[in-house]
Amino acid sequence: MEAAVLDTLDPLIGALRERGYAVVGPMVRDGVIRFAELDSAADLPVGRADEQAPGVYRLHERGELVFGFAASPDSVKRWTHPPRSTLFRMRDGVPEPAAVRAPKVALLGVRACDLAALAVQDRVFLGGRHPDEAYRERRAALFLIAVTCAVPGGTCFCASTGTGPRADSGFDLALTELTGPHRFLVEPGGERGAELLAALPSRPAGDADLETARGVGAAAEARMGRHLDLGGVRERLAEGRESPVWNEIASRCLTCANCTMVCPTCFCVTVEDGTSLDDGTAERTERWDSCFTLEFTELGGAPVRSSGAARYRQWLTHKFSTWFDQFGTCGCVGCGRCVTWCPAGIDIIEELERLR
Amino acid sequence: MSKLAVWKLASCDGCQLTLLDCEDELLSVAARVEIAYFLEASSARGKGPYDLSLVEGSITTPDDLERIGHIRRVSRHLVTIGACATAGGVQALRNLADVREFASVVYARPDYIKTLDRSTPVSAHVPVDFELRGCPIDKRQLLEVIGAFLAGRRPVVPAHSVCVECKARGNPCVLVAHGTPCLGPVTQAGCGALCPAFNRGCFGCFGPMESPNAAALNALLRAAGMDDDALQRVYRTFNVTSFGGSSDA
Amino acid sequence: MIPTPYHVRSRRPDRADTVTLTLEPVEGACPSFLPGQFTMLYAPGVGEIPISISGRARSGGYVQTVRAVGAVSRALCRARRGDVVGVRGPFGTHWELAAAHGLDVVVAAGGLGLAPLRPVIRELAAHGARFGRISVIVGARTPSTLMYPRELARWGRDFDVQVTVDHPDRAWKGPTGLITKLVGRIVFEPARTYAFVCGPEVMMRATAGELVRRGVPAGRIALSLERNMKCGIGRCGHCQLGPLFTCLDGPVLTYDKVADLLEVKQL
């Protein structure tokens, strides 16, 4: 199936719901554009745009685009690697694996950076000697509808990391929002997407549609909020472990862990063990953890990384240097979330420059 | 069966009420432990010693001092609950002023009032096995602590920031998204990020997190419109003895 | 991440705060292990910690020594014969005994670090002919915290075994002070030596440093590193040391791979 043009997204949302998917997409909630379950295309944030800067996010009314905004505070991680999940229960010495919650979810409006983050997660969770089957199940239950970023955020730098703004692969369907007249170019990324697209009332895309769509990605690339020169960053960090810059950053860093929570590739977890008060059934829960907590490196009652400087160094060095050693790729996909959602507005791009 | 006792010093009773609020889970607790002494719930005074004592309230009178010594002696494990017991509570505001002056203004016969100059946490007087923070404490955390002491394990009560729970819950940061002053980044988790979930800033009732960088946060709070007075007030509310000096104002 | 139920087959208190357990699967046989590997031992409802395997019992079970320092290790030390604990693993890298064939061997253990080295020493005792001169040096805080004293005495008949303590009691007649001092009291040909070192990190750094100064190649000094571990399979992220996952790339690593990393404070 070739690319097609849709005038509205309602048939797409309807078809997904008919196929048993909860359709989750961007909505205005709590003063931000975040992902939540959609009833119809009317829930989408038409004409709403975000302003993103280090430590600042504001919502404005601007233009008429449905997807005229950048990365939302949440990434796909919430669905593939949820904040909390039960691993097993054990009663009378017999462990029972907990059922994996892997609901069928169609994510509408996934950005190229998030698809790149998913590819990184695939390496982390599935690429090693101990693949995570729960992750595999949750990931397989997702139907991914990408959208080309038309309006990059003020903290985005996916063009520098080579992960956007246009999605090349890793999606079921990819949308590009076109104007004059308003329409969506839809490109299938595989059989599942092609099958769904064939069932929708669409018309074939013309050369002009394809050309305009290419222009959307190119324009976004030119308007990227930030630029990062990745050359030598990996080595710079590996060699810069004793740099005085870490202490200076630590004077501003809150060690609050927001950056690691919103990062789409941060995967660290801890486990919590307990017993039910009722019948003493033991239970283990896995939950998001962060290298910014002291308990993360606790050994014999004391943390290895007691200083904020050591913890910040771990986060940045892992993302841009040791991630390559461990997973053969960069841990950063340029979404800019850690810059926007750092309350202190610490800008990793500036810090990487200062470490030169 | 293990024996549980619940004690009250200078406090508002809200933390003890958290145990009664457990409702369904309270039955499970009652099935596992003998609630031997809990005047808020029953007039029965079961004899000690007790395996686990939950102590609410701060030390503000000579009588409190005597009682906490007794409580420690009759308790195998002593867990303090709430901001009063762990950090002196709201009443520790007296520590920054002259309590006799207060007494003379409030009471017709201040000479009847026997009170200490300062309100202090229980841990300032006797060894405490665990401190559960909050104003009031969180019900899930209370059940976790009781369960942990019964099972002989370390309670899962993380000392990291509220932000970790806030993001896990899916809240957007109120400081970043709305410019709402929020103490979440310097405050210990435990409440489940209750206030930010309703678009309110955290006001620090769980006390300082494990490595608070108040100086860095204060710069942001000032930028969000708080002046020195407001900063001082927000730190000097529930946890004066642990948070009081954080305003650097 | 699901533990397999194991029975506590036997429980032997070693010292005031250490207990050696023999663990056997409730069903089936123990997976094979290599000296230096560890398992994640789970005290049901209490928690899970990494514990090295100190050997295989005659019955086929794992022999594992636990020191009661936290809630989980205390619960494991309290386990009684017949109790069920959970086991995951074995995980991690192992002591490369074959790399020491034909070479003089130095085994250096500090405190509980003797537990992961016990299978190495047993192997050396069983196949002494494959190696050159063998020396075992051990450091303990006090004579009463010295691990496996009876086995040490037995091994002393086969090769040079020397023990030092930090704080001697009245009965102690042996050397006192740091284990590095013992390095000067054993005989080995540095250029043709392989060393197995395990103990607190500061002890391992000092011992490896001393061995390097005497001419032992860093690539022939194996250490067993310790970090906070929650998963044992490179997933939780806690045990990272620079580019390494201690649970996957370690715990046993040669000094040439980690010397620089161990120099950096709070890495």
TrEMBL record, chain A:
Domain annotation 4Fe-4S ferredoxin-type: ranges: 242-274, 320-352
SUPFAM superfamilies per the UniProt record, alphabetical: alpha-helical ferredoxin
Q: Does the keyword Iron-sulfur feature in the UniProt annotation?
A: yes
The protein's matches in Pfam families, at most eight in alphabetical order, are given as: Fer4_22
* Gene Ontology MF annotations: iron-sulfur cluster binding; metal ion binding
* InterPro entries reported in the protein's UniProt record: 4Fe4S_Fe-S-bd, 4Fe4S_Fe_S_CS
Name used for this protein in its record: Sulfite reductase subunit A
> Which species does this protein come from?
[Actinomadura] parvosata subsp. kistnae
From TrEMBL, chain B:
Extract one GO molecular function annotation from the record. Answer: oxidoreductase activity
Family matches, as SUPFAM superfamilies? HydA/Nqo6-like
Keyword Oxidoreductase set for record = yes
The residues the entry assigns to the signal sequence are none
Question: In this protein, which residues make up the domain named NADH:ubiquinone oxidoreductase-like 20kDa subunit?
Answer: 12-148
Keyword field: Oxidoreductase
Q: Which Pfam families match?
A: Oxidored_q6
InterPro entries, from UniProt? Hydrogenase_assoc-protein, NADH_UbQ_OxRdtase-like_20kDa, NiFe_Hase_small_N_sf
Q: What is this protein called?
A: Oxidoreductase
UniProtKB/TrEMBL annotation, chain C:
Molecular-function annotations in GO: 2 iron, 2 sulfur cluster binding; flavin adenine dinucleotide binding; metal ion binding; oxidoreductase activity
Q: Where is the FAD-binding FR-type domain?
A: 1-97
Q: Does the keyword Plastid apply?
A: no
- Annotated keywords: 2Fe-2S, Iron, Iron-sulfur, Metal-binding
One Pfam family for this entry, by name?
NAD_binding_1
Q: Where does [2Fe-2S] cluster bind?
A: 231, 236, 239, 247
What SUPFAM superfamilies does this protein map onto? Ferredoxin reductase-like, C-terminal NADP-linked domain, Riboflavin synthase domain-like
List the InterPro entries: Cyt_c3_hydrogenase_gsu (IPR012165), Dihydroorotate_DH_Fe-S-bd (IPR019480), FAD-bd_FR_type (IPR017927), FNR_nucleotide-bd (IPR039261), OxRdtase_FAD/NAD-bd (IPR001433), PyrK_electron_transfer (IPR050353), Riboflavin_synthase-like_b-brl (IPR017938)
A single BP term in Gene Ontology: pyrimidine nucleotide biosynthetic process
Which coenzymes or cofactors are required? [2Fe-2S] cluster
Q: How is the cofactor bound?
A: Binds 1 [2Fe-2S] cluster per subunit.
PANTHER family under this entry?
Answer: DIHYDROOROTATE DEHYDROGENASE B (NAD(+)), ELECTRON TRANSFER SUBUNIT (PTHR43513)
This protein is called Oxidoreductase
Species of origin reads: [Actinomadura] parvosata subsp. kistnae
